[in-house]
Design brief:
alpha+beta, Alpha-Beta Plaits, six-stranded antiparallel β-sheet
């Protein structure tokens, strides 16, 4: 019998309503309790302007590094379950305010494009609120089909909405 394999995964976390910093902290605590998953890396938190056309408060964001035995679909399902526990309603308009947003950014260097899961997460290369915290914890990680997180972060620092590290 072979031992179960552990896979690296990166998760973006954010909130902009109902005490965003507390939502992010509780979300991190929930992630640290996932079965067959270990939270190994945690970036600082950032305050960032929202994306999209909806007027809303700024977000608190961070990126986490996990080691998991869950497959990508099971991990995504676990992330969505945590979002629901925090009152996330996916039926409301896209780009709107969120109590908790958990995005599976990358999983074990996989590239996949399925109806319910795209890896790496689309739009990474344009999101400073993902790349700057991710560069803190995994600067040399090579995003599948692209370059390192650090190189991607350098490209978005000047052209993205305002962002600042708060913790």
């Amino acid at each position: 019998m072979t031992a179960p394999h552990w896979w690296p995964a990166y998760v973006g976390i954010g909130s902009n309503i109902e005490s965003p910093a507390s939502q992010v902290q509780r979300g991190i605590e929930n992630l640290s309790k996932l079965p067959r998953t270990i939270l190994v890396l945690e970036s600082g938190t950032y305050l960032s302007a929202p994306m999209g056309p909806v007027e809303q408060p700024d977000f608190v964001n961070a990126v986490l590094g996990l080691m998991t035995q869950l497959n990508p679909h099971d991990l995504l399902s676990a992330l969505q379950s945590i979002e629901r526990q925090h009152g996330r309603d996916r039926s409301v308009a896209r780009w709107g305010p969120r109590t908790l947003d958990l995005d599976l950014l990358a999983y074990a260097g996989l590239s996949m494009n399925e109806d319910d899961l795209i890896l790496p997460h689309p739009g990474i290369a344009d999101r400073n609120f993902v790349l700057l915290p991710w560069a803190e914890i995994a600067p040399h990680y090579r995003v599948p089909g692209s370059t390192t997180v650090t190189e991607l972060a350098k490209a978005v620092v000047e052209k993205s909405p305002k962002i600042k590290r708060i913790d």
